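Re: that backbone. Tokens:
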């Protein structure tokens, strides 16, 4: 996997914030709507031991963040790029 996958719902403020973060920094991602896609909802429940924690974000290195803050997203992207992207 070499892209970011964001699992969430349009009604979720934290999901909208995560999407805005990636868009603001021109970071490509794939959106998976847990409200309309049963497979996406199932993945989130499995990744969160039965909980519907969104956004659940899967990174190219296989790591995941659940409900990350903006500072957590910045730190993660910097660790992935090792300074290549200035956020």
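Recovered sequence:
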């Amino acid at each position: 996997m070499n892209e970011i996958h964001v699992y969430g719902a349009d009604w979720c403020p934290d999901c909208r914030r995560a999407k805005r973060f990636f868009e603001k920094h021109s970071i490509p991602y794939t959106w998976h709507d847990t409200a309309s896609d049963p497979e996406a909802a199932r993945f989130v429940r499995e990744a969160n031991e039965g909980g519907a924690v969104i956004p659940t974000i899967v990174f190219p290195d296989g790591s995941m963040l659940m409900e990350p803050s903006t500072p957590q997203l910045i730190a993660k992207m910097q660790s992935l790029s090792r300074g290549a992207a200035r956020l």
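The radius of gyration is 12 Å. The longest helix spans residues 13-24.
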